[in-house]
Every structure is written in structure tokens, then in C-alpha cells.
TrEMBL record:
Cross-referenced InterPro entries: Metallo-depent_PP-like (IPR029052), PhoD-like_MPP (IPR018946), PhoD-like_sf (IPR038607)
PhoD-like phosphatase metallophosphatase domain sequence ranges: 61-283
Signal peptide range: 1-33
Lineage: Eukaryota, Viridiplantae, Streptophyta, Embryophyta, Tracheophyta
The entry's keywords: Signal
Presence of keyword Cell inner membrane: no
Record keyword Signal present: yes
Name assigned to this protein: PhoD-like phosphatase metallophosphatase domain-containing protein
Species of provenance: Vanilla planifolia (Vanilla)
Organism superkingdom: Eukaryota
Length: 287
């Protein structure tokens, strides 16, 4: 999927990363509220000179995802020009895994009925860290970080492996590296929890925006299991977040598609990852 703020040219996107379908925001207007930094993690301190004051009314948020750290990323110019107060990474913030060529036949068939080799494989920790460094050294992103509060969650490719869920062995390493990338403080509780879900409250009393970032990877049961996406601990946390102190606007971000049920029409040939593939979990999310 591409970033919301786009000048039409830029982030190199992975083909299956469909436009905006994947990032899902529910806007729930909820009554009046008082402040409260939420328990999961208060926003990290900024190592920047001109960050907006945290109690300013937040009216400009930008979202982005699917950023290829090895490609040029001129999209940042447009994003910086929009001057968001908050920028939210929705996942595939880097491409941390590796893709083999499509091969239908042979000892290394990666697709089709004779597939015998996985199409994707993970990187080492050293390599993942190197890719995050590449992403962080993109000059346009550097400019954004100087003026904008950057927060985020992950999707599969920065989690470490295409379409991966809870079974992925490198997830704790990936969590540390993502949180390093996001400048999460060393002593943040988010570094100790299982998964990278988090929530933030911006703005003064009476004009607050809450941003809830889900983790759709760390606890996710296998595709087709009709199991859980968020896992028990994250569901409990989410419930507390939603029933906690009210805010004027609540934004919930998911790295995979919430509304779409596209796989119902493209399957059995091709499946997209989405909440629609976990019907029980999806109906729980709308209750
Ligand atoms: C990222 O960009 C590089 C350089 O253009 C390209 O070789 C690579 O295939 C891209 N990776 C993805 C996942 O699109
Ligand atoms: C990953 O971290 C969690 C705590 O967040 C811990 O319970 C688990 O054992 C760790 N898993 C591995 C494979 O290190
Ligand atoms: C998705 O579509 C299929 C086939 O039309 C349907 O059986 C299923 O209930 C739908 N799932 C959701 C979550 O809407």
C-alpha cells in the first residue's frame, strides 16, 4: 500500500501491498474526555529541535507504509510539505525479508503446485539492522523526523517475513529493532511487552485525538485457522483503551485490511491477508 500523502511518484511499493486498503482507520467520535497518556506507552521523548508541543491541537496526521529502504524515497518531500504534526508508520516500514524469483518448475520452484522452496526468507539481525539504518538515513525522512512526531507499528515485511504470524522465531529481535528505529526509550514498557501495539493521546483537554496502533503479527494464528489476530493480551489491552478516558477522536490503525473481503472473490487462486480471513476475530472487532 502507498502512503496517504503522495505526490504520485514515489515509495517503491510491493505489488501485493494494495493502496490504502490495508491501513485501516476507524474514526470513532467519542464524547468528551480528559487527558490520559495511556498505560501501554507514553509517547517517547523527541530527540529533535522543533517538535510540536505535545499539548497543541493535532489536526494534521499523515500515514505511510511500504517503504523500500533500498530505493529512493522522494515522497518525503510531499509529506514534509504537508507538515504533519504526527506521522504514523503503518507497516512494511522497511522490507526486511528476502524474495526469491518466481519459478514454476525445477528444484527451486517458488510458486504453483510443484513449489518446493519458500518464496520469502528472513534476514539476519545484522542485516535487518542495516536495513533500518538505510531507512533512517533517507534524507527526506530525516527532515520529517526533525519536525514531526513519528510513531508506528509493523506489518509482515518489517516483522521479518512475508505473511508471517506468531510462529515467526525472530519476532523479539524484530521488535527491538523496530522500537530502536522509532526511538522508543530504552526503559519503555513497550520494549517489554509481547508485541508492538501502542496508543497515544494528543492535544489539550476537550480536543484530544487518540491513536491506537494494533499489532497484527506477533500473536496472529496461522492464516485459515479462523483463530486470533490480536491475541488475548492485546484484546484485553484494546478493550481498556477503548473504555478508558474518552477522547474526541479515536483512530485505530491496522496494518492489514479491516473492511475488505477481497479474498472471497480472488480465492482459491490468490488470497490477500485481511481481517476478513479471520471471521470470528473480525466480528469481535466490530462489536
Ligand atoms: C527495493 O528497491 C530495490 C532498488 O530499486 C529493488 O532492487 C528491490 O527489488 C526493491 N525491493 C522491494 C521489496 O520492492
Ligand atoms: C519473546 O519475548 C517474550 C516477552 O515479551 C518472552 O515471553 C518470550 O519467551 C520471548 N521469545 C523468545 C523466542 O525469545
Ligand atoms: C467474506 O465472503 C465470504 C464469501 O462471500 C463469506 O462467506 C464470508 O462470510 C465473508 N466474510 C466476512 C468477514 O464478511
Amino acid at each position: 500500500m502507498g502512503p496517504l500523502v503522495s505526490n504520485g511518484t514515489e515509495l517503491t511499493v510491493l505489488r501485493h501491498c494494495l493502496p490504502l486498503l490495508g491501513l485501516l482507520l476507524f474514526l470513532c467520535a467519542i464524547g468528551k474526555g480528559q487527558i490520559q497518556a495511556t498505560q501501554a506507552c507514553s509517547p517517547p521523548p523527541l530527540d529533535v529541535v522543533s517538535a510540536p508541543p505535545l499539548n497543541a491541537v493535532v489536526s494534521r496526521l499523515a500515514f505511510g507504509s511500504c517503504a523500500n529502504q533500498s530505493a529512493r524515497q522522494p515522497i518525503w518531500d510531499a509529506i514534509v510539505e504537508f507538515d504533519p504534526q504526527v506521522f504514523i508508520w503503518l507497516g512494511d516500514n522497511i522490507y526486511g525479508d528476502n524474495r526469491r524469483p518466481l519459478r514454476l518448475f525445477g528444484v527451486e520452484a517458488t510458486i504453483g503446485p510443484w513449489k518446493n522452496t519458500p518464496r520469502f526468507f528472513p534476514s539476519t539481525e545484522v542485516e535487518l539492522r542495516r536495513r533500518y539504518q538505510l531507512a533512517k538515513s533517507q534524507p527526506g525522512y530525516g527532515r520529517l523526523r526533525q519536525r514531526t512526531r513519528v510513531i508506528g507499528t509493523w506489518d509482515d515485511h518489517d516483522y521479518g517475513l512475508n505473511d508471517a504470524g506468531k510462529e515467526f522465531g525472530g519476532k523479539n529481535i524484530s521488535q527491538r529493532l523496530l522500537l530502536d528505529f522509532l526511538d522508543e526509550p530504552e526503559d519503555s514498557p513497550r520494549r517489554k511487552q509481547a508485541g508492538v501495539y501502542a496508543s497515544y493521546v494528543f492535544g489539550p483537554h476537550g480536543q484530544q485525538v487518540k491513536v491506537i496502533l494494533l499489532d497484527t503479527r506477533y500473536h496472529r494464528d496461522p492464516l485459515s485457522s479462523d483463530g486470533t489476530i490480536l491475541g488475548k493480551s492485546q484484546w484485553e489491552w484494546l478493550e481498556k483503551e477503548l473504555y478508558g478516558p474518552e477522547t474526541e477522536i479515536t483512530i485505530i490503525a491496522s496494518s492489514i485490511q479491516v473492511v475488505s473481503n477481497l479474498s472471497a472473490t480472488t480465492g482459491p487462486f490468490f488470497y490477500m491477508e485481511s481481517w476478513g480471513r479471520f471471521p470470528k476475530e473480525r466480528s469481535a472487532s466490530t462489536n
